Amino acid sequence: MEFFTETAIIAGVAIMTVGWVATTWLRIKNGYPLENSWGKSVYPKNDQAVERVKLLTQENAELRAELGSLKDRLGNVERIVTDSGYHLTHEIDRLRDGKEAN
What we know:
Number of domains: 2
Mean pLDDT: 83
Number of strands: 2
Helix content: over 70%
Number of helices: 3
Largest sheet: 2 strands, antiparallel
Low-confidence stretches: none
C-alpha cells in the first residue's frame, strides 16, 4: 500500500510540474507577462524588450498627439456646421438651385 501512495504522490507532483512548465511556455510564446509566486508580473530584462517598450511608448505618444489634433479639427467642423450663418447660406443655395431647376 505504501508503494501505491508514494507512486501516486510522485506522479501527481510530476503532472503538476509539467502543467506549470506548459503554462509558462504558452505565456512566453504569446507575449503574456510572467508572474512570480505572489502574483506580481515579472517582465524580462533584456535589451530587446526594453527597446520594444521604448518604441511602443513613443508610438503611443504620437498616436495620442494625433488623436488630440483630430479632436480639435472635429470640434472646428462641428462649430462650422452648427453655425447659423452656414445654415442660412445652405438654405439660400438650396432655394437658388430649386429656381434654376424650374
